[in-house]
Each structure stands twice: as structure tokens, then as C-alpha cells.
């Protein structure tokens, strides 16, 4: 499955009808807060692995983290859709940025525009 295919299929499950929304809409805010919440759930899963299992991940842990990462992907995809940005464009731009940083030796540096 491509990012484009994922984005096209995922948005059909949007509770707000999958129609692009302005950033001041309740639908957009729902997506933004959902992304934050799901990202926090990923972090919380790891916290519990460290706290409860000395950092040793089980197959069940991995399956649960996979579900949460899927939720992060859904919200990211929906936000991109609302902004009329193809998800594959997000992925390509990110790789371009990362490879440029790698080429210039600033992967481990600080700042957004390094």
C-alpha cells in the first residue's frame, strides 16, 4: 500500500465526512488534539515497558505499540488531507530534509533549519 492509497482510504473513516476543514474548525482541532493524544499513548506504552518490565518488550507490547502508531498515522494523514497535502508529499519532503542534513553532517545538531 502506498501513502496515497492509505490517505484516500483512511479519510473515509473521518467522523466529519472527510471534507477538508479550515484550521479553526472543530474537525481540525479534533485531528490536532487526536495526534497529540495518540503520540502520548505511544510514549505511555514505552513508559510502562520501562517501568513494569525493565525495558524488555514483549510481542504483545509490540502489537499494542503498532496499533497506537497506526492511530498516529491516521491523525497525521487526516491533518494532511484537511490541508490538501498528499501524505506521500509529506514523506518525500521529510526524506529530502533528512538526507540533506545527513549530507551536511548536521543530523545530530539542533534547530529546525540546520
Structure write-up:
The chain has 114 residues and is mainly α. The protein has one domain: MazG-like (Helix Hairpins), CATH 1.10.287. The chain is built from four helices and no strands. The chain has helices at residues 3-10, 26-53, 59-82, 87-104. α2 (26-53) packs antiparallel against α3. The radius of gyration is 17 Å and the shape is globular. The model has no long low-confidence stretch (mean pLDDT 95).
Keywords, please?
single chain; 114 residues; mainly alpha; Helix Hairpins; 0% strand
Secondary structure elements and their pairing?
Blueprint: H1 3-10, H2 26-53, H3 59-82, H4 87-104
Helix pairs in contact: 2-3
Characterize the biggest β-sheet.
none
Q: Can you give the helix content as a percent range?
A: 55-70%
Number of domains: 1
Strand composition percent: under 5%
Helical/strand content category: mainly alpha
CATH-defined fold name: Helix Hairpins
Q: Pick out the low-confidence regions.
A: none
* Cα gyration radius (Å): 17 Å
**Based on DSSP secondary structure assignment, what is the total number of beta strands?**
0
In CATH, the homologous superfamily goes by the name MazG-like
Shape: globular
Q: On the 0-100 scale, what is the average pLDDT?
A: 95
In DSSP terms (H or I, runs of 4 or more residues), the helix count works out at: 4
Q: What are the secondary-structure elements, in order, as H or E?
A: HHHH
Ends: how far apart?
33 Å
CATH architecture: Orthogonal Bundle
**What is the CATH class designation?**
Mainly Alpha
In short:
The chain has 114 residues and is an all-alpha fold.
